[in-house]
User: Fold these one by one.
Assistant:
Number 1:
Amino acid sequence: MAKERLVVVGGDAAGMSAASQARRLKGPAELEITAFERGHFTSYSACGIPYWIGGQVAGRDELIARTPEEHRARDIDLRTRTEVVELDLPGRRVRARDLESGAESWTAYDKLVLATGARPVRPRLPGIGAHGVHGVQTLDDGRRLMDDLERSPGRRAVVVGAGYIGVEMAEALVRRGYAVTVLHRGEQPMATLDPDMGGLVHGAMNRMGIVTVSRAEVTKILTDEEGRAVAVATAAGDEYPADVVVLGIGVEPRTALARAAGLPVGTSGGLLTDLSMRVRGHEEVWAGGDCVEVLDLVAGRTRHIPLGTHANKHGQVIGSNVGGGYATFPGVVGTAVSKVCDLEIARTGLRERDALEAGLRFVTVTIASTNTAGYYPGAEPMTVKMLAERRTGRLLGVQIVGGAGAAKRVDVAAVALTAGMTVDQVVSLDLGYAPPFSPVWDPVLVAARKAVSAVRAAGV
Amino acid sequence: MAKERLVVVGGDAAGMSAASQARRLKGPAELEITAFERGHFTSYSACGIPYWIGGQVAGRDELIARTPEEHRARDIDLRTRTEVVELDLPGRRVRARDLESGAESWTAYDKLVLATGARPVRPRLPGIGAHGVHGVQTLDDGRRLMDDLERSPGRRAVVVGAGYIGVEMAEALVRRGYAVTVLHRGEQPMATLDPDMGGLVHGAMNRMGIVTVSRAEVTKILTDEEGRAVAVATAAGDEYPADVVVLGIGVEPRTALARAAGLPVGTSGGLLTDLSMRVRGHEEVWAGGDCVEVLDLVAGRTRHIPLGTHANKHGQVIGSNVGGGYATFPGVVGTAVSKVCDLEIARTGLRERDALEAGLRFVTVTIASTNTAGYYPGAEPMTVKMLAERRTGRLLGVQIVGGAGAAKRVDVAAVALTAGMTVDQVVSLDLGYAPPFSPVWDPVLVAARKAVSAVRAAGV
């Protein structure tokens, strides 16, 4: 049998996990692996960038799980600073450009993995390209921001967007001594939560000294004579002075290439795959990571949920399948955790608006509890909001905001959602209890008890 | 309809939860509630006693969720220092003794709740009743120990037993400045874990300066002329000097009364109930808390698992049922969490010996990971052991030992066990990921990945 050729486009979590897993299953005599990466780095934790910027992580290299050299040592022909600029699916080949020399060449494949990731949304605004305006999506972005902060230290930072990246970057800049203002378009920060829970994050951020401006529509980045950002202007006519501007508005799947080649994408522009992570309708093409849509098991539809943990799993599944094994990625329930300073933030399943959009009738309850037994020293507040389906009592979603241990508490709900449990079943769960770790009724169980009553009271 | 009479025997978690829930559903015009409690206190956290002794919790009163007066204010006729000494089931009445006056009287019931709790195992050894030898099962026990520590401060403590209470009391006494020696009969401390995992606890305790002596059979408590304990002697002929001795050998269901009345008990002596917590074969008698056996859903048998969190749930279920509502307690999966100083310890499901005893064929895997992303500051080691059934790949049990966040990590496995998930399904779980909270592959998922391979390698 002829040697099989695997081409991987994109050298971060999904792409290199796929390449590594395929290599584990098939040696170089059976499988030739070529991977293309536009940037300088591979297999790094983009999620770690805020902690590098904030100084908790000493250096960039700590975020790199595996360097290009390490991949090459495992017989993966890895080409960094090389961008794939065309997919020729009928001809089973890709055209790649060396970003240093500009030289282009075609590489043939038998199997193709697309792991092109996501790109930060950059609104087309005057000044958006100015010096001092930064995204934080890639390690190259992080390096540029870090260089800028070190070369031009300032006092005032404006963060645009109040999602995960926005609040994490706000914390990072506070840690570096900046006075931070967060401008965001929503009613409350953390639009991945319902507004009532986002309000708790809002209050906590303000108490940490972070200014948050809601319903703020950025219209322009003001610059000085040298083209450096000096302030951010909003539609309300306000100007927020800034020595540095960080964009955390969100990301979108980087799928222009794939769309040009006719591959199927969903409503958010992410590639659509089957359960083995094969692109729908294309036998020889797999895709994973931030460039795909994943099945939301609770809502029953696909969504774009860019997260390193999904990307790693996708890579593992793809690598198993292209390496001759068998694995599937059944979908997600929408779990995400974060923190801003000491406040932990978590969600899983559906928010109210998601449940409405999914056509579900539901009840919501919110309870206040503590992360440890109330009498245990350092007990911190924890608020849990829970959604349950009317009539059936099926758990639909949980949001948690609180002190230490609040974030990973959401995992209980994530597993219960995956199992399709009702809130009655959740009440009976045998969760770990000891005073340093939980009140005798875990806050998630307290919420479930209240949800059981609410379901009963709501009728059908 | 005549007013119904509910009698509750035992005024801690299960009994008073049942009384309170019944009262919530039925007012005093419909239901008369009488509760008998031998001790001075009601509705307290016995699990909190080590933290009161250790000084983290300021005072005893903080451990009391609801005082006798508060219960009485809610129309519960609560009689403290009153012990029920006979159950007359055919006559539907109980005989109670006032422990202050010695006076006895009969109280009739329509429905009876038994919540008599557990009592510490006290081996019949010379000196076991000496001054300075303490159990820590009830708040009265805790008060006696606390008084003793304050009146006769010493330097050396011996803890007998290395289960949850033993290790927690070891920590408490270290915090009070004692040199602590823990004597235990097993190969390793924490026999609720497999010995390999107990070995990790052993090493950590030694590094904290706690001396542990394994395979130690206590034969005698040596006393001075005034009858105060001065040392603990073992079968090996060793003597361990002690200014205070704490017994943490375990507890057994306090069911002598119930057995005398002919109620059914299991192999551990705990009462046997149906799923509504009604004593099997007895329409009008309910039982819950540390005096019952609970159904172990993984092993398919009943066990005695004395834990405050179960007791509270039992009380809630019993109170709903005796109050005219409907609730059930489906069983447990054997989750327990604890800590000794900064080391967190958790288990759920079956240990190797449990799985063997249950007639299961299984594989075990153990992995080393960290509680946060490896590069995040303060990342601490976390070891996860996982058992999975051969052939089916069904998850059977998880044990975790490690740094902050290790203990409650086990809840993920507890929910997965309840749902009957396979380790393949666990690998795909959508757990919260962000660098301050987890590596990109959560340690539980890493263990599950390894378990999947082990199941495949093991064949049928």
Note: The radius of gyration of chain B is 23 Å.
Number 2:
Amino acid sequence: MTFKHITSRDNSLFKQLKKLADNARERRKNNETLLDGVHLLQAYMEQFGLPKLLVIAEGESTNEVVGLLQELADVPTIMFTTLMFAELSPVATPTGILALVDIPQLPVPEQADFALMLEDIQDPGNLGSMLRSAAAAGVDAVYLSQGCTDAWSPKALRGGQGAQFVVPIVERADLAAISQAFAGQTLATTLDGESLYGLDLSQPTAFVIGNEGAGLSPALVAAASHNVSIPMAGQVESLNAAAATAVCLFERSRQKMAQG
Amino acid sequence: MTFKHITSRDNSLFKQLKKLADNARERRKNNETLLDGVHLLQAYMEQFGLPKLLVIAEGESTNEVVGLLQELADVPTIMFTTLMFAELSPVATPTGILALVDIPQLPVPEQADFALMLEDIQDPGNLGSMLRSAAAAGVDAVYLSQGCTDAWSPKALRGGQGAQFVVPIVERADLAAISQAFAGQTLATTLDGESLYGLDLSQPTAFVIGNEGAGLSPALVAAASHNVSIPMAGQVESLNAAAATAVCLFERSRQKMAQG
């Protein structure tokens, strides 16, 4: 296999991809993002087919990458220097393959039975973990406030491990309006709410989770039908926001399964 | 207040603190680490008293930092340039205060009722989140394999939000031996185990959690009394390791509370 080999950082395609890697506005404007690594690309292709472009690093490729390149021989492929490639990758040890894809928009159900609303989550790893938990727990739709970090950044995609391709995500959502329109209970997670375990979660349920440091805004607490807390037995009184999200979502899963 | 003001990166104290910030071996050798920010320092002081040294950045200090400096007027305090301070801090937006402390060793109960064993966790943020969940769920002891990232690194401390000061942590532990000696059930989390929800978790219980990518080693799976999985309703089949840990630990909490 031979590929177009680009070694100059002045190359216009490199500059464009670097903007996509670094800049949420650029990703939104073009409706494109970069997927890093074989696993994410395969998860994407299972749902949406071929990527628009593949990028590899010069030097050695793993057999996994070589196999994928053979399988995707019809997709335009370019090669960057190792250093240029590393500038596009969100991880310290780059995986050796990046793919340019359109950001997919999965259809959002009109009446979600199980929703997750996230207010102003700052850390892309946390957001990725929350989306991954949502996808695993069977959430129907995730709504992100204007102030949330971008769900399609390379770091959030890495944290999501493919969750972004299976769970519908609505960005820049008006969470108060969505909370009030939700046809079911909306549960705002706070430090002084009702016990999560005392609520019947088998009915249509939306969890509303706040910023890592500040928690939920008063407006969203007020818009919710209940405030809920995870009872804590230990000496530390709060959880990482992504850990708390997982506990809430899977408590609903558990209750639904217990009902049969 | 006036402080010793250090502006040279050649300063021996700066060089020593930089080693502590960057290097697990150095932290272990000296049994010292750096705490970043008012919150962590306060959590430390609640348990262990004063730090050995305070470090602040030149320029403006927040009122929170100024208040703490007044309260801790007897603790030696030095001031570094903003850039030097930033080199010691694990966060992009430094908090403006660092504290040098001895790494505490909390007594480990001889017979833990609720334990967590972590094998080769790589990401310090994940490890911090797991320790925070353990502290919140009332875990008695956390055992870390030789291959785990350092629990006392600035990033792991930041993720733990004070958990390291309340839950006993045993590093470089032989998890297979501890698992076999544990006086209760040891539950290895895998993708094909029994349902977490079908087990009686009210008895003495240890959860064994594996590396983020590779999962648990066969040796630890074999050493456990059960393999357990979190049933997943969605299209994604695994959780972030820290999210899975939270779900497991809080399912035990829930069962214990349900028993009264």
Note: The interface with chain B takes residues 125, 128-129, 132-139, 159, 161-163, 166-167, 197, 230-240, 242-247, 250-251, 253-254, 256-258 of chain A (CB under 8 Å).
Number 3:
Amino acid sequence: MDVAATLSTAGTSPGFLHRVTIDLGERSYAIDIGAEVLGDPGTWAGLPRAATAAIVTNDVVAPLYLSRLRSALAPHFPRVLDIVLPDGEAHKDWPTLNRIFDALLTHACDRKTVLFALGGGVIGDMTGFAAACYQRGVPFVQVPTTLLAQVDSSVGGKTAINHPLGKNMIGAFYQPLRVVCDLATLATLPAREFSAGLAEVIKYGPIADPAFLDWVEDRMEALRAREPSALAYAVRRSCEIKAAVVGQDERESGLRAILNFGHTFGHAIEAGLGYGAWLHGEAVGCGMVMAATLSQRLGRVSADYVQRLTRLIAAAGLPTRAPRLADDNAARYLALMRVDKKAEAGAIRFIVVDEQGHAELCPVPDAVVAEVIDACCV
Amino acid sequence: MDVAATLSTAGTSPGFLHRVTIDLGERSYAIDIGAEVLGDPGTWAGLPRAATAAIVTNDVVAPLYLSRLRSALAPHFPRVLDIVLPDGEAHKDWPTLNRIFDALLTHACDRKTVLFALGGGVIGDMTGFAAACYQRGVPFVQVPTTLLAQVDSSVGGKTAINHPLGKNMIGAFYQPLRVVCDLATLATLPAREFSAGLAEVIKYGPIADPAFLDWVEDRMEALRAREPSALAYAVRRSCEIKAAVVGQDERESGLRAILNFGHTFGHAIEAGLGYGAWLHGEAVGCGMVMAATLSQRLGRVSADYVQRLTRLIAAAGLPTRAPRLADDNAARYLALMRVDKKAEAGAIRFIVVDEQGHAELCPVPDAVVAEVIDACCV
């Protein structure tokens, strides 16, 4: 399926307060993109009435934005609670998720309570999953404060926690009421996390839009300098592509898997090193080099294309050489990838790309994968 | 809304291998009712292809039916796993749920894996919730082996685990592929559990079908003697009523709450005594006496009706006097009920009935509820 063909062709000028709509029937919602919008009470008009809003955030984001969001929500909700979790992928687990349930139940929150996920991908995934499960489902709003969350994880309704035996293995497809991307929050993002977010921006070019790949290459310096117009377009275009894909395949029965380009290798890196050692975006950056190398072995892209993508990933400040995970390194990678959610009947499947912006899910023989691992590891 | 009017009017003759369909658009499914069907490979034809079937059951049901179900599934699935959990409501918690995830991940089960819930309400609720969450959703089949599960909990897609601060507080609406009620399994059910199931059978009369209430009264002796034709009709009519209600309101935005007649009081009893002290059906039986008494205080039913229902609940072998939970007994009940999922903005809401088979959700002042508690407690 040609995703690019289904995209709107709105020009490349940055649009403050741009709205991207994700079309999922009665579960459709808006992704609102703007600067300094999080602290504006007007941003939060039109949400369902409820006795309580509960902001879920972490101890790094809370000092920066919590009081601003709380004040902006106060005119709309009689009670605004906050639930501050420890920061980091290492805490994306059941005990931490349960702190959300404990807080909601201790405060007798009913099933109209609206949860707000204020933070990066981990907060968004956990808050979304908590919303999916609390009293069998309460509404929630994504307020992503990292680049990765704004361009990828907050959009599309994938929620989850990790299990010791696999990343994001316990979760739900559960859509938010709304996503609000405040570009101003990106100014406070540490460089390493910003680069991690660029991995997901880069991803959209190879899988769906060669012109966007060109644009990202041209504007990488402006992006890393966090130039507002560059950020605005990167977030908007990423959300447009993601919305087009998710709108066609909400529950990943097919097409949606292309958004996992680089992720099968990336998940193995994250699990193999222990969650949190590499950031998710770092693992995905490196994983895209591996997936491009695999695409080349399968005759779908040239060596030049692999080099071009590798240079771009390096220019984003991301690792391009994969870590060794064990003495029997390829076997370890393969074992970790066999629990990937795309695996079926024991066969690992990979997203491979061509140079025209098409991607597809492919089972690949272990021997070919092992060669790629050997070629890409330090 | 008049549920009875939407029901099919198929006569009262027992139908072996009767099929009740629950109409939920693309999530529609069949409830198949028969005797000795669980061990027949033909019963399991037509399910989706998958590499693995995983039977989740408990240590009481496993010795009775696990090997029979495993043999019947073997022609359909290359691999049949079993996951045997400890029995009882006290284990309807996260650590036990996680044993399902551990087993599925240890055996590298992919997201086409079909889970089979073989057991009562606890197994059905936990297996359904595990299916809702594992890799963000895998298909599952309900194989209820208790009366309570056959007439109520296996139908309609409510899944959950308990939280120390409230029953069924963490869960999902997630529909099975199919429900298979094998009436033969009811022969091995302990008397106390059988009576608990009768509470949910009794429930359908007051909320939707006065003629069914008459029938249950007439046939209570035959039911308790587990006469096959009486069982077949009780299961079938209960499923028909439940299917009609759920088909109109899958996610309990309104009508579906009527299925909770007696449950608000019942949940307080269960939580107040500690989960597992009373069976769920016992608490619901006693809760219906309380809810009927409340309906009388509100002028909706006569004292005769309350007595009639009380006698029927007693005849089913269920408690009709509520336990004292604390020195400040009514306050304790009220505090426990305030976390009920039907509560909204701190107001507890109750299902009240009239004598014509209509039920509705009503907020009730605490003082009135406290009087009912005082009147109904030992």
Note: Chain A touches chain B through 38 residues (CB under 8 Å).
